[in-house]
Amino acid sequence: MRHKDLKHWTAGFAHLLSLPNGRPRLLGLSQWLKQICAVDHFVLFVYEGNHRPLALFDTFAADKRKIYVDDYQVGPYLLDPFYLACTRNQPPGLWRLRQFAPDHFYLGEYYLNYYQLTGLAEEVAFFVDLADGAKAVLSLMRSTTSPAFSRDELQMLECAEAVVIEVVREAWQECRVQRPAQDLDHKIRAAFDGFGAHSLTAREQEIVQLLLRGHSSASVAEQLEISPGTVKIHRKNIYAKLGIGSQAELLGLFIRELAGSEGGEELMLRTGS
């Protein structure tokens, strides 16, 4: 960063500190980070236990918010590599989506039937640890018309990590709400965990969940420590039991299963399932 740019950036930081806590400061944070590099959209989700993601802040227009936030919260988040990284207690820091995406993520149902609709080309995110085991993920998104984040840009963003952590934690303290232990979020998780339980074995359910999340047969075999040939046999049996002909029909079937819980019908209508 040139001296002139550094002076402008530090002045922006001083302005950021003067803003009220909560949304005003989060908006200021997004504008400050855009001084480092171009970002098309920001969204801050908090993942807390079995609750569905809570959107604390975003910069989307109303029409895009329906896809990026509303649709995401109804169920697709269960297939999101960032969400899954949080469930594995991913350490804080700046991470690229591609670091967590399984080998067939860009051919999988989550990408083809949901993520692709967002028009995103790349996503990086700051992971922030919060109180009581909750995690915040501040995503920085670029559309398909923008280039990928460069190494220099990522290094500069990493320099901003301490500020991001402080602003996000303060916003969480300001906006945190007490949510019921068992509500729609619990039902969505239960619907996913029990998907296909009426006809599939426990092993077949494991395989279905991995396929939905973008794993290839080879990756499924590695994850479950079984042979690729065994996975192939399981897939054939799964398709026969579920009455489908290919992996391409799995997500639609999953969405219809979610329709059994409150809010699932809305997502099913949106996706045309």
From TrEMBL:
Residues 193-258 form the HTH luxR-type domain. One of its GO terms (molecular function) is DNA binding. SUPFAM superfamilies: C-terminal effector domain of the bipartite response regulators. Gene3D superfamilies: Winged helix-like DNA-binding domain superfamily/Winged helix DNA-binding domain. This is Helix-turn-helix transcriptional regulator. PROSITE patterns: HTH_LUXR_1 (PS00622), HTH_LUXR_2 (PS50043). GO terms for biological process: regulation of DNA-templated transcription. Pfam families: GerE. Keywords: DNA-binding, Transcription, Transcription regulation. It comes from the Bacteria.
